[in-house]
Amino acid sequence: MDGEELTEQETALYDRQIRVWGADAQRRLSKSHILVCGMKGTVAEFCKNIVLAGVGSLTLMDDRVVTEEAWSANFLIPPDENVYGGKTIAEVCCDSLKDFNPMVRVSVEKGDLSSLDGEFYDKFDVVVVSCCSKLINEKCRKLSKRVAFYTVDCRDSCGEIFVDLQNHKYSKQKIEETIECQLQYPSFEEAISVPWRALPRKASKLYFALRGVFEEAEGRSPGEISIADLPAVLKLKKELCEANALNASHVTDSLLERLIIGTREFPPVCAVVGGILGQEVIKAISCKGEPLKNFFFFDVMDGKGVVEDVSNPKKESK
Amino acid sequence: MVSERQLEAIKGAKVLMVGAGGIGCELLKTLALSGFQDIHIIDMDTIEVSNLNRQFLFRQSHVGQSKAKVARDAVLKFRPQMSITAHHANVKDPKFNVEFFKQFNVVLNGLDNLDARRHVNRLCLAADVPLVESGTTGFLGQVTVHVKGKTECYECQPKPAPKTYPVCTITSTPSKFVHCIVWAKDLLFAKLFGDKNQENDLNVRSSDASSSAHAEDVFVRRKDEDIDQYGRRIYDHVFGYNIEVASSNEETWKNRNRPKPIYSADVMPENLTEQNGNVAKNCVVDTSSVSAMASLGLKNPQDTWTLLESSRIFLEALKLFFAKREKEIGNLSFDKDDQLAVEFVTAAANIRAASFGISLHSLFEAKGIAGNIVHAVATTNAIIAGLIVIEAIKVLLKDTDKYRMTYCLEHITKKMLLMPVEPYEPNKSCYVCSETPLSLEINTSRSKLRDFVEKIVKAKLGINFPLIMHGSNLLYEVGDDLDEVEVANYAANLEKVLSQLPSPVTNGTMLTVEDLQQELTCNINIKHREEFDEEKEPDGMLLSGWTQAPPAKDDKQSMNDKQSIGNGGDSSNALQTEPADAVKDGEMEEISEPSGKKRKLSEGSKASILDATDGTRNHKEVEKLDDDDDDDDDVVMFDDLDSMTNKKKRLQ
Predict the structure, then answer these.
(1) Of A154, B7, B255, B649, whose Cβ has the fewest other Cβ atoms within 10 Å?
(2) In terms of domain of life, where is this protein from (chain A) (predicted)?
(3) How near does any CA of chain A get to the CA of B46, in Å?
(4) Domains of chain B with bracketed CATH
């Protein structure tokens, strides 16, 4: 493993976490560059985690102005117009995040990520977006170097994470040994094209429900979908279920209603999902520990944090 | 999304947080965002640099300040309307009595030691206030709910006691690096730099041929003795002479490899001062920055030193203590943040390890073991904090059926990273919450009251300020309000043998032990027994009805061993695990083995179904939600959990 030694300052600050993942992993983290798009509450949690972990840099994208909804679930935004007035969400969050760890470079990038080209994406090792985007995922996959791609979305009292590490080599501990492993990830498009009947019967219902919600929301900006869309979503669900030979009652109307109505994030869910996401990104950068593949769901209703492998079995190689 | 019902409960709730550290910072932030308005925090610690990687409410500029206060100030910045009361104090302080606890709707723990957790557990039971407990270590975490009468209390299930090692393993037959650390820290360091009057097993040998008087003189530096000479003399005594003597005992080494004596002349033939003349130039006023590593140019704490390097550090560190910190000698106790002490202990442990064929370790690793450092990251604490708030809300709404114990796993198990389990019913034999009497077998004509107080009341029952009664007769108590006569009386009682007490304690006597602060009453039935096995019951007493978790496998015999040495307190923000060392050995017991009691609270109860949406759901829809889950495993069955735990132990 190449690289300079950690400084005395880093060793002192990161002592407790170096004891978890080792000095090598810490060095890799300090050289990594993260891009985040869409600063919702869960993403704010993630940013806090990744800055504390000691990444090289974090770039934020979110040109929206601060609203009450924005700061209600985001502790990086003080509810004080004197502080946030005239600034975008990204700018306010950037100021707060810088404080958490002076050794991390935090900055803001303006514009629409999906319209930027490969040269821009190439600067990063990890891209995290707060709404599913096939387009952005594809851009990440077209580069010569591997750019890890994540989406995260929390609504009502549920959360979903999608992970695409393309071809990922990592090491894991088994008793006293270190074992080298490899995982192959499908792209987002490939994943959602996996026929529903190919998935285990007990697969998280959230997976199906959210696909319905997002498909309806496609093309529209986040937050635009509302209760008025419920009939359309229910209709869509029926169609999707029929097309996939899935019993429509498997995905309840009430679940969909919860997801449509509950656009606001629930702070404890943000903490949980933002924490899991933080851990996953750290694993991807350090190449240490088995990353989850490829969907994660959390629902307060049953309290479970579930991993679903939605991939075409033929493509997998271990 | 939060329902009206939830919002109201949250707004009106008064919450107590105990601990403002790793979990505490995350918890306070999430409580604030979730709409809680009235929070009290208790934490006695001040902020250290090593906290800053996860306790994100604190900054470099806050080092040294009160955690509770700084946490409060930081959160008020983004929720100025909240009422947050910070107590920079020890939760065991008598001012936090049952009355104090009664004012809260729920208590949330973010503690790092067993003692405080037991204390809070008892106060919550006495005040009848629900408690949400939690702990994290590295990537592992758990959240549990404790409601009096409805679920187990925190002490219903045995918690593993801190690991201890038999004295002979430490003094004569170490086989692991941790044994060398304990020797270096609790014996050698203590002998050289600590209180001279303290009992010290350093020269304990199986065959004690030489006179102890001679042995005592060896460690004291003679008047005007040259420091280099002194250092080498100590080195040769503990690593050379003592090893040779120990090696000569045939019995000990029948089935073990003999240790090799190491003499300074063999490892470092040249005079040390010729190697580097830095010490004289080191005019450092600040004693805390004095470092043998710096002196010798060894920069990286992650490097594993050779025997030669360890030896050099040993002598250099010893020298620096005498040259720069002479005043402290005789009063020093090991502190993991004392760089020079850590260097000395690492060096000494390494040389001893070399002697016994055990692999050497870096300063970084040694510090972790010697300092009982718990490894910790921000993400696990954030996850656990989120889960705590979710449980807290259920508790406020009294949604008993929905209470869950949730485990945050490092490896996916049954497709889960977060695994909820239903809480157990209270353990009917729990002496803390079920007031079941305990039994004590003891020799009432030989054991003194003092033995009972130290070994049973304090050590096992965790009662530090006891009141002991035989019927209506007060045998012993502690307190500020006692007069001279009473104090003398109790002191005298301590020295009396049980059967000779003013109110004699004999076979069939029932003693009552109380802790007024914890409002805990414990009845103990005394059974007289003449003989006790010196090996298995070195305390000369046997307490039953009180459950102690089984020790880690290879130290089984040390559990009840009177002659055992621990590695310092358990400062784990956890799951009662030993730090780094234990993780490597796969000895984690983070999911305490359930006692197999019937679990489900919800059996037979058609209590309210949590509405996660607004309260306007009609009954029919709600039922549908319920039916939805009938084919999922809502709850992990006991057997699976058990086999899963075992599986995990093997995999690690």
Answers:
(1) B255
(2) Eukaryota
(3) 16
(4) 4-162+375-421 (3.40.50.720), 167-204+218-269+290-371 (1.10.10.520), 438-544 (3.10.290.20)
